[in-house]
Amino acid sequence: MTAEQIDGKAFALTLREKVGTIAAEFERKAGRKAGLAVVLVGDDPASQVYVRSKGKATLAANMASFEHRLPDDVSGGALLALVEQLNQDPAVDGILVQLPLPAQLDEQQVISAISPDKDVDGFHVINAGRLAVGQDGFVPCTPLGCMMLLTSRLGDLSGLEAVVIGRSNIVGKPMAQLLLDANATVTIAHSRTKDLPAVVRRADVVVAAVGRAEMVKADWLKPGATVIDVGINRVPSNEAGKTRLVGDVDFAGASDVAGAITPVPGGVGPMTIAVLLRNTLVAAHRNAGIDLAKDAV
Ligand code: NAP
What we know:
It is a single chain. This protein is an alpha/beta fold. It has helices at 8-30, 45-60, 76-88, 107-113, 125-133, 141-154, 172-181, 196-201, 251-255, 269-288; strands at 4-5, 35-41, 64-70, 94-97, 161-165, 185-189, 205-208, 226-229, 233-236, 243-246, 260-261. It folds into two domains: 30-115, Rossmann fold; 141-269, 3-Layer(aba) Sandwich (Rossmann fold), CATH 3.40.50.720. The protein contains ten helices and eleven strands. Bound molecules: NADP nicotinamide-adenine-dinucleotide phosphate. Residues 142, 165-168, 170-172, 189-193, 196, 209-212, 230-233, 268-269, 272 line the site of NADP nicotinamide-adenine-dinucleotide phosphate.
């Protein structure tokens, strides 16, 4: 069997275009653009790249982008003051503080300071709680993106066996909640799980969010399973001195067994920014009191 590749890049592009169209309508209705503020502390090169691409994508989706750069040694008080200023700013619908933060800063305290109604990353405990009890809130972008890819491929997930490998607050746990909401039978596996291959072999749907290069092997998979690979791991390439990106799943091997699989890169990765824009658009409508149909984006 050669698995169908789930093209996250194309899906993300379509989603971004849809968001851009609705954002233009929002501007006409609200008399202002939807706005996303991104806060970057320090000069970590990877974070700089993420922030730059988020800014570009925001502008391309007809939204306003507000970038705030703070020095590496900024105090907790100064960062919290900026977050509060953004909470109060009516031009800002979504606030994202790029993680990780330098060691002197308390990430949890900073996330808790963001207004839950502007927490488009969905990391605030209020939004985690809303997801847990089935209320409308903001869902973390990566798992929501995975869910969109899954439903586009499978439609109804009712009764399917789903195994999520990884239990982080930003991927594994919200992913499991979303699958449960979609009536899948969900198992969350982690580093203490016994006989992980046997657990994974039960699954119609596998979501791997571990951070270990090509850990999930072909013979762990049930034939025909749908595999979503969240992992982003940099490994040495065949060319001397160069590296390449691989996921948490052995893509070549798994492609012979799975029914469908996301590649790395080009699978889940592009969905994350697209969903961030989608969440910002939703926040803007809520903040401005303008209706947005539940299935509009
Ligand atoms: P994380 O916080 O490090 O969590 C990793 C999880 O994997 C933990 O729950 C850990 O279990 C589990 N784990 C570690 N080793 C394991 C093993 N041998 N067997 C089974 N489970 C194991 O990572 P994360 O933030 O969730 O990210 C996971 C991966 O997704 C990373 O590669 C990251 O780069 C990638 N990622 C991609 C995107 C994207 O946009 N595509 C976004 C976010 C993250 P314990 O809890 O027991 O330690």
